[in-house]
Amino acid sequence: MTSVTYSSTRGGQKNLTFREVVMQGLAHDRGLFVPDSFPQVSSEELEAWRKLSYADLAVNVIAKFVHDDQVPRDKLEDIVKRSCAAFRSDEVTPIVHAGGIPVLELFHGPTFAFKDVALQMLGNFFEYFLETGSNGGRLAVLGATSGDTGSAAIYGLRGKKGIDCIILFPNGRVSPIQERQMTTVLDSNIHCVAVEGTFDDCQDIVKASFNTPAFREKVHLGAVNSINWCRVLAQTTYYFWSYLRITDKHPGAAVNFSVPTGNFGDVLAGFYTKQMGVPLGKLIVATNENDILHRFFTKGEYHREPIAKSISPSMDICVSSNFERYLFHLAGNQPDKLADWMQGFESTRKLDISGDLLKQAQSDFLSARADTAMTLDVIKEFQEKHDYLLCPHSAVGVSAIQQLGIVNEQTVSLATAHPGKFPAAVQRAVDPLPPPPEQLAKLESMDCRRSECPNDLKVVQAFVEERVFGNKQ
Ligand SMILES: *Cc1c(COP(=O)(O)O)cnc(C)c1O
Hints:
This protein is α/β, with parallel strands linked by helices. The protein has a domain at 95-109 and 232-426: Rossmann fold. Helix content is 45%, strand content 14%. It has helices at 18-24, 43-49, 54-65, 73-85, 115-131, 148-157, 176-183, 199-210, 213-219, 229-249, 265-275, 292-299, 323-330, 335-348, 355-364, 372-386, 392-404, 423-427, 438-441, 457-469, and strands at 6-8, 33-35, 95-98, 101-105, 139-144, 163-170, 190-195, 221-222, 256-260, 283-287, 301-303, 350-352, 365-369, 411-415, 451-453. The protein has a 6-stranded mixed β-sheet with strand order 3-4-14-9-10-13, with helices on both faces. Strands 8-5-6-7-15 form a 5-stranded parallel β-sheet, sandwiched between helices. Helix 10 (229-249) crosses helix 11. The chain is globular and about 55 Å long. The model has no long low-confidence stretch (mean pLDDT 95). The site of pyridoxal-5'-phosphate (PLP) has 17 residues, from helix 11.
């Protein structure tokens, strides 16, 4: 059997393999890679998966997309199991119960945030593909981070053979813990760069680098930002896992999910799980003040606004990079229509949908928005009444469930980070704070290394070339 193939949302590249889309990241026409079909999981199969450990379940889910023609089964098992073994919980993403809802804890990986689920896996796939001939065995991963992606990428790629990892972050604009989580990784293949600018400036440099073919090919550029297909795929497993754990206790339940959302990668994995035939209930898009997605799902208006600084910084976005994948499906999987939409959006900063399309979007997703006061209220309520401490991102997800009036044991709230990562915000609701996990507490006294660059494409590209080629040039 051959594996699922992939095409760009904008139609410029078709029929690529899993290996190719993982290595390439973004499509050359600036579209995103989407699977050409969704493998189905039958109800018998799902039942048979009920008894599996998380790691074995992950192997089965991912093997639906990745057959022997891409990665031999024993190698796939090795990659997936090593990725899961990086987590502090045997269940990888355990479910706890608090305040009348199941909370899916996605933060037991090395950097205490959900991005580890995907980036541990991506790092291992990269390594395997390089070992087996992709890119001549070399890859320069260039990423931009506002906080969590950078450290998760660094922990996924540290020490990996053939890979240089260069992470740009806005100088002075990521939290001290987030910065330390990156800069205390001293492996020689890891390079943290503080850029004089905003997160968007960093992201623009990354995008522009991908759009410079000569540079892209010279350094063998790869992406870890949330658009890499592998990340979405890796995240589908915990939707399967949660569905099975909730229906262990409530057979036949339509399990809903509330997902604190920024770039739409996490909740998209839930949508894709549904496309594979898992009878999930509602998917709730939970946003902070940066509510472009909430406005889309309530009014059909996808209008770009300036970024607002919130207490859940990993959800501070003005456009959602993965949303193009959902829009592609909403456009009936028609690349020409999607390309038109995106062209319009890029020139006017607005995309409007209405009528049946809006109805369809609203049947796929619910949404809600939690501002700072609401988020802090939920953190306080959960700590005081239920003895459970939420991080500000996770609290946005819980607030959405409360606002929509569906607090129950079948509505899972995704907890995307450990509260110990965001002490300043959490302390506004809960004072004094419980002590942070030891791994976070000791960051302050560890050695660190970082470089600095102006907000200048050419300077950053020269930095990357120097790291990749050293003095061999
Ligand atoms: C990245 C992140 C999110 C948002 O996830 P998306 O896939 O971008 O929607 C939410 N919470 C935390 C803690 C994150 O790091």
